[in-house]
Amino acid sequence: MSQRAKHSPRTAVVALAVVGMGAASVLGAGASAVAAGSEAKAAQAAQAAPLAVNTATAVAAQAEAQAKVAEVQAAQAKAAAAKAKAAAAAKTKAAAVKAAAAKAKAAKAAAAAKAVDWVKPVAGYTLTAGYNQGGAMWTNKHSGQDFAVPIGTPVKAVHSGTVVKAGPNGGGDGPAYGNAIVIKHANGTYSQYAHLSKINVKIGSKVKTGQVIARSGNTGNSSGPHLHFEIRTTPNYGSSLNPAKFLLNEGVRI
To answer: Which CA distances in Å does 223 have to 113, 129, 137, 149, 228?
Structure first.
């Protein structure tokens, strides 16, 4: 017989069984490894899923918070703009009110200065015959304004100027005026004072506003004690203006 081992059928079966067991072992180990990998991936996926959800929620929450912050900032900016606009409007209104008050004050001061610049010719009077009034007392209509006052009442220059007429016979305008004075003023107008009992100035005298220039009387064509007062555009009779209206324009109401 040969020295080679003789394999009996039983030996072959055992060998195949061993091989099978090895193969089964190998295959079983591979399957186990595959299963283990799948389980690990599933676990990772399961772990990652909540993280992804949480991240998305956090991003959404952050976006929402940023949107709210932006909304609040926009509201604050709008409120600040409205406040600035209101402040500017209030400032403009205050400036307008202040300007109006200053203008009114300046007008009042100007009116006061103007009133001081021109004065009434007498005090304690009663107005009688007015300008342009008709009547038997005058050849033409009345050329001035009459102030009924007692004889001797102080007569004042209504404005500063230079005496151009003074004396009896109306200072040259005629006997109807009695004793009279005419003063030339810087604005080119003239004031006349008639029926005087006494004259305190002379031609060429410089007089100031409110200065006593005479005393009232009843001389000339007069129906009783009074001052006849005129405003003229020349020193002579026939150029008279409405004296009440003229003085009112100068801030003096008679």
So the answer is: 36, 11, 9, 12, 11
